[in-house]
Design a protein that fits this description.
The complex is a heterodimer of chains A (325) and B (118). Chain A is of the alpha+beta class and 325 residues long. In chain A, 54% of the residues lie in helices and 7% in strands. The chains are: A alpha+beta (325), B mainly alpha (118). Chain B: It is a multi-pass membrane protein.
Chain lengths: 325, 118
């Protein structure tokens, strides 16, 4: 017991141990050390995101157009609602966590267990939501075309609404062989072929006079620029790759770095939530078997609580940076 | 002199903070969906006024999470300062350098013959 919970003892000598610098126990102080360094790690990532965004400020994707899915509402444009819901779930799990800490101070074992359980459920729902968000992001909705110069072209109709490749691409009688390792010489292979070839998209575009091309460039209304039919034809002739969904190389939403940062930062945060849930589960069982009751202190709950709140704190910033700004 | 003696149970404060955090999130979401033109198209120090509001609200939420949920307000002032001030300084410093540099590179791509995507 004495080894896990240090209690301040002013009678001991300063260098003999048992002191509590800044009035915080060893475990709590170390948790603060960790949180400060982890906060700086996340700041580094978010600042790097800001750097890349300022670098490509005129061509960055608009978040509202990318994250506009809501469960069971197919084809409905619902920006922000889902991620707002996720934010609420995480804030609420923070509330149950702080209630668990509060109950721990009053040595109420059953209440601590209940609130820890609710926190774990909240964290689980959040990670699940994040996975669903990733699934939509990776799958994509409309598809796009990349030019030889590396910029991305999306398709809209006369009203400026997005059109999916499947809605207009022609079907040409052509054979496209997937290069696999067994066919290639010297370990060559390629990524899964897109549903349509560049030629099919171009033929379909020619056949549908109502379709225009939308470039990545933001106009003075902070909307993506839509080209005229002639300009669209010219740009499309430079196409060299059909992009569907998102991966770490290219994505149909715009700037390549956008998907990279999205995967990396939300992934790193999601990993923190996941570890938090695992740690919470361990502590939850410790509460159930009465470890802290015997120890006479629920400080361990407080320490994981600090970590859990920190995860929530990071999400508040990720939410702003990726979805609002 | 353990901190546990200083701790006072305060469930009503927890719920109040939850109310504040929820309210601020709702305001953020409403602003994010409607994007009022007067805020969205007003530029202030390199960002739209709307973005400044989002960041201000975010820091406001962060304050409540750290001070109420992480119980920073109950800690010694030495611990408070040791955690908060280095973070604020380092993050602002990092943002300042990186965003200035990003803006500079944007200018290079825009005004000179170097092109990135075309």
């Amino acid at each position: 017991m004495e080894s896990t919970v240090t209690t301040g003892n002013s009678e001991e000598k300063t260098w003999g141990g048992g002191n509590e610098p800044m009035g915080a126990s060893y475990g709590k102080l170390m948790m603060w050390f960790f949180i400060v360094s982890d906060a700086l790690t996340f700041s580094g990532f978010l600042a790097a995101y800001g750097f890349s965004r300022f670098k490509f400020i005129e061509t960055w994707p608009i978040a509202d157009e990318v994250f506009n899915h809501f469960p069971f509402l197919h084809g409905v444009d619902a920006p922000m609602y889902y991620v707002a819901l996720m934010t609420f779930i995480l804030i609420f799990s923070s509330v149950t966590m702080v209630l668990a800490v509060d109950a721990g101070h009053q040595m109420k074992k059953d209440k601590v267990a209940l609130y820890m359980f609710l926190t774990i459920i909240g964290g689980g729902i959040f990670v699940g939501s994040q996975a669903w968000e990733w699934k939509n992001f990776i799958k994509g909705e409309y598809g796009a075309v990349e030019t030889k110069g590396g910029s991305l072209l999306q398709f809209v109709n006369k009203e400026g609404k997005r059109v999916a490749l499947a809605d207009f691409a022609a079907t040409l009688p052509e054979e496209r062989g997937q290069l696999t390792r067994d066919k290639g010489t010297w370990f060559m292979s390629e990524a899964t072929l897109p549903s349509y070839s560049v030629a099919e998209v171009q033929a379909g575009f020619k056949a549908n006079p109502d379709i225009l091309i939308r470039t990545e460039v933001l106009n003075d209304k902070k909307q993506k620029t839509i080209l005229s039919r002639e300009e669209s034809m010219l740009r499309l002739s430079q196409a060299h790759y059909v992009v569907e969904g998102a991966n770490l190389v290219r994505n149909e939403y715009g700037s390549k770095l956008f998907a990279d940062f999205f995967f990396f930062i939300t992934g790193f945060h999601g990993f923190h939530v996941f570890s938090g849930v695992i740690i919470n589960i361990i502590i939850f069982f410790n509460v159930l078997i009465g470890t802290y009751e015997k120890r006479g202190s629920y400080e361990m709950v407080e320490k994981v609580g600090l970590y859990w709140h920190f995860v929530d704190l990071v999400w508040v910033f990720v939410f702003t940076v990726f979805y609002l700004v | 002199m353990s901190h546990e003696h200083e701790y006072v149970s305060n469930t009503s404060r927890i719920w109040k903070v939850f109310g504040i955090l929820s309210l601020v999130t709702i305001v953020e979401v409403i602003l994010g969906i409607y994007k009022p033109d007067s805020l969205h198209f007003t530029n202030f120090l390199g960002m739209s006024l709307l973005n400044w509001i989002f960041y201000a609200l975010t820091v406001y939420k962060a304050y409540y999470i750290v001070y109420a949920f992480m119980h920073m307000e109950g800690e010694r002032s030495s611990l408070r300062s040791a955690v908060v001030y280095p973070l604020i300084f380092l993050i602002l410093y990092l943002l300042f350098i990186l965003l200035t540099e990003g803006d500079y590179i944007y200018g290079v791509f825009k005004d000179s013959t170097i092109k990135w995507n075309f």
